Amino acid sequence: MADVNLVRMEIDNRAKTGIVMPVMNSIFKSSETLTAGATAQLFADAGEVDRAELWIITVTGGNVRVAFGSAPVASPSTGMLLLPGRHEFSAMIGQKVSVIDA
Q: What is the pTM (predicted TM-score) of this model?
C-alpha cells in the first residue's frame, strides 16, 4: 500500500523581462495524506478549488492510480498511473481527486 500526500498551492503570474509565467506562491491551501488501498478514496479537501491552484501529489511506498473530475472514482485498471515520486497538476475549479492502489 502506498501513502499519497496531496498539497494544494495557489498560483500567481510573475513577470520578468516581459515574460509572464505562472508560479507557485507561498500560500499553502491544504495538505492531506491517504494510504491507498483496494477501494477508491476521495481526498476530502481537493474539491474546494476556487482559483488558479496546483495539486502536488507525492507518492511513497508503491504505485497508485488517480482519477480527476467532479465525482471521480479511481480503479486499479483505469485512471492515471503514478509511480513513487512528486507529481504536479493544474487544479480545475470544481474537480476532485480519487486514489487507489495500482
A: 0.85
What percentage of the chain carries pLDDT values higher than 70? 94
Question: For 14, which DSSP code?
Answer: E
Write the CB contacts of 14 (distance below 8 Å, at least 6 apart in sequence): 20, 21, 22, 23
The Cα-based distances of 93 to 3, 50, 55, 83, 101 in angstroms read: 25, 6, 12, 25, 26
Instruction: Describe the strand order of the beta sheet including 80-82 as a list of residue ranges.
Output: 41-42, 96-101, 64-69, 80-82
CA dist., res. 102 & res. 81, Å (int): 7
Q: Residue written as cell 471521480?
A: 72
User: Cα 73 vs. chain centroid, distance in angstroms?
Assistant: 14
Chain centre distance of CA 50:
15
Give the Cα separation of 75 and 71 in Å (integer). Answer: 13
Lay out the sheet containing 19-35: strands in order across.
19-35, 3-16, 53-60, 85-91
User: Where do the structural domains in the chain lie, given as residue ranges?
Assistant: 3-101
